[in-house]
Amino acid sequence: MDIRIATDQDRDDIIRVYSPAFPEGESEIVARLAINLLSENSMPPTISLIAETDGSVVGHIAFSPVGIDNNENCQAYILAPLAVKPDYQTRRIGSALIEYGMQRLSAMGVSVVFVYGDPKYYGRFGFNADAARNYTTPYNLQYPFGWQAIAIHECAAEKAPVAIHCVTSLCDPRLW
Fold first, then answer.
1. Cβ(30)–Cβ(57) under 8 Å?
2. Is the pTM of the predicted complex or chain greater than 0.85?
3. Distance between CA atoms of 66 and 135, rounded to whole angstroms?
């Protein structure tokens, strides 16, 4: 398996990853998010990675920057979305994408990474609800227990709730 930066030429392959990996209705929304993040013009940049096996794209992940109210010195990202084609799940492809992305973010000096997902899955990588407790999302969460974070580098911990702000592609309440 190889992991590389996704490009605009990977759009169709990325859609083919998300379509079977999520339920009907949800897959279109999440695939559109993944595609929109490819062209998101953010600073720091959004990171979009794909996993290839036997010459075909089998997984995708994106990390995009988030702003934290009143804390410009704390660089943060959110992991969203992540998918692996069903026939390739349970082969550690998703894990490899997360680990590779987290290494890149650590090398960039990112302090905190957020995720909104299954605590059992993301907990394996060190994400936890306590680390995200004082950061409020842009929209109400359908599943509040899924809001998690991991501190990669030291950053002044927030003592009171503060809001985070996402890139335009994530500003859709259906994603939350």
1. no
2. yes
3. 11
User: How far is residue 109 from each of residues 70, 92, 114, measured CA to CA in Å?
Assistant: 19, 26, 15
Question: Alpha-carbon torsion 170, 48, 153, 42, what sign?
Answer: negative
Give pLDDT, residue 71.
Answer: 82
Looking up tokens 């990390």 gives 63
User: pLDDT, tens digit, for every residue of 99-147?
Assistant: 999 999 999 999 999 999 999 999 999 999 999 999 999 999 999 999 9
- pLDDT attached to residue 39: 94
In contact, 80 and 66? CB cutoff 8 Å: no
Structure token pair of residue 76 = 């943060």
Task: Catalogue all structural domains in the chain, each as residue range(s) with its CATH number.
Answer: 2-175 (3.40.630.30)
